[in-house]
Design brief:
Elements: H1 10-14, H2 24-47, H3 49-56, H4 60-76, H5 78-107, H6 114-128, H7 131-142, H8 148-177, H9 179-200, H10 213-222, H11 238-242, H12 245-266, H13 268-275, H14 280-310, H15 314-336, H16 342-357, H17 360-371, H18 375-404, H19 408-425
Helix pairs in contact: 2-7, 2-8, 2-9, 4-6, 4-18, 5-6, 5-7, 5-9, 5-18, 7-18, 8-9, 8-14, 8-17, 12-16, 12-18, 12-19, 13-14, 14-15, 14-16, 15-16, 15-17, 15-19, 17-18
Length: 439
Amino acid sequence: MIPLPTRGRALEARVAPPTMIPRRALVVTATFLLAFLLYVDRVCISTAKVPIVAELGLSDAQFGWILSSFAFGYALLQAPAGMLADRYGARVTLAAVVGFWSLFTGATALAWNFISMMVVRFLFGAGEAGAFPGMARAVFSWIPVRERGLVKGINFSASRLGAAVTMPALPWLISTIGWKASFAVLMVVGFVWAAAWWLWFRDEPGDQPGLTAAERDYILAHRQEPGAATAPAAALSFSTLLGSGNLWLLMTQYFASNFTFFFCLSWLFPYVQKTYQLTYTQAGVYAMIPLLGGAAGNILAGWMVDAFFRAGRPLASRRVPAIAGFALAAIGLMLSVDQATVGGAVLWLTLAIFGADMTLSPSWSTCIDIGGRNAGQVSGTMNMAGNLGSALVALAFPYLLLWTGKPQTFFHVGAALSLVAIVCWMFVQPRRPIASVKS
């Protein structure tokens, strides 16, 4: 159960936080860089669409299936990857999955036709599946509850910044060294991160070299299970997971959130380029702006989560940022359609992504709340449902456009899903541990 915040100073007096820069800040920095790289690798294929489609002779519908194959691989391996993170810890899990997906980032350059590209991107997505569940497990072990919202916001803002940088930077890199060499460069960067993480990080704060006794005691006293060791937890049964109404609500709302956001990673770049007759570079700059809005939404929501929690309102700390975010997402999506200029469309899409990303910190914080030592498995299950939404987006946008001849229907569907998500959050109970649900 998520501990209630204390208004007094008794606990802080017993275990005071260290005055130096805390070592857990380095953990947050490492996961920030991981999330940044995660989305650079993920978005690079969207910015490379033109040369890839030209070289492999693909249609827009086929390219949509390639994007969707990544999302299906990413979604289907979420829960298993979360179980691995819970069983073996964030150190080995993150080092392994980053190395695996980096290998298939490079292998993307070796694809020779539609089918081979689908297979490579599916395996790439399967590798990336372990990233956020692994980070969730590291957060459970290392980050006190009162700091958790902002930390998750920082991690997710990094993913948006990574995607934003990719939009204008990758077209330049591709034009300089070619799309195949660009994927090879990203593969090497991933290998470097995986090796550094393995050599430096330890799953349990008490085992981390250089950690002061004061910070170790502070972490252990303020994390989810004060003073308890984070020994591997027995995996939750499938029936226990499906028996949790909380988890069903979280999966539904996360599906809606990803439906809005994944448009930025898959079709925003080609959409604005074609709709508003932009150059390659112009499209990259405009496609970057909503992602920067997403980064800002993550930071704001993370701050709100912690601020409400410290004020003695743990339920509001999860519900308020999420409900506000989905309301902004619905408004932004509805107003983005039929804009005469690219500036108007991007402005409202930025509001939509700002809102959609406000839902991430409360979503993942709640998964850690109700999952405890099974945080990886619970968050992975939620992320699986969310990324089924991503897979649907990759196909829904081109096919709805093909069937209706206009993109408006897609944005209307996204807005409706955001309203459904608001209803879900009215019933989420973050202080009800999932392990208490009987299978």
